[in-house]
Specification:
This protein is α+β, with helices and mostly antiparallel strands and about 150 residues long. It contains four helices and eight strands; from the N terminus they run E-E-E-E-H-H-H-E-E-E-E-H. The strands form two sheets. The protein has a four-stranded antiparallel β-sheet. A four-stranded antiparallel β-sheet has the order 5-6-7-8, sandwiched between helices. The longest helix is centred in the middle third of the chain and has 11 residues. The radius of gyration is 19 Å and the shape is elongated.
Length: about 150
């Protein structure tokens, strides 16, 4: 038997979740850190995702924890902090590559800059794409960007 937890925190889908604090904590100090249902080591869980560091990806062996770190940090910040290499560009699109043994394979990203707001959005694309334009087609389910009626 044990006492009920002092803290028990869930996300909107009822998965254990807390940012920068334990998702479960008992009165004796035993704690469990979790991010959207994935249990995290204390060394990551005690920090808010805005404080997570991209270089942690280089030494983390657990693929699920790496996936959560990537989700929490975001590809745009990872690109800046791990010096993504530009492979190709077309209009406001840039194909980037991060090859630091972060994941099972090199990470290929499509960086998109909104022409009206300047907002940058980054999406992961398959590693077999060879150009920014090909990556745009993949993101848009095979539709070539020249076929877009209006770009916003």
């Amino acid at each position: 038997m044990c006492d009920r937890p002092r803290i028990l925190s869930f996300d909107s889908q009822q998965r254990l979740h807390a940012e920068g604090s334990p998702a479960i904590q008992f009165s004796d100090g035993f704690s469990v850190y979790a991010y959207h249902g994935v249990r995290l080591p204390k060394k990551y869980g005690k920090f808010h995702p805005q404080q997570w560091r991209s270089e942690w990806l280089l030494s983390e062996d657990n693929a699920e924890v790496r996936r959560v770190l990537i989700e929490g940090i975001g590809y745009d910040r990872i690109c800046q902090e791990l010096a993504a290499v530009e492979l190709d560009s077309w209009q406001e699109y840039t194909l980037l590559k991060i090859d630091n043994n972060i994941d099972v394979e090199a990470i290929y990203l499509l960086k998109m800059t909104c022409p009206s707001t300047g907002h940058i959005h980054v999406l992961r694309v398959p590693p077999d794409v060879e150009s920014a334009r090909e990556a745009i087609r993949w993101v848009n389910w095979g539709i070539d960007p020249e076929e877009f009626v209006v770009q916003t």
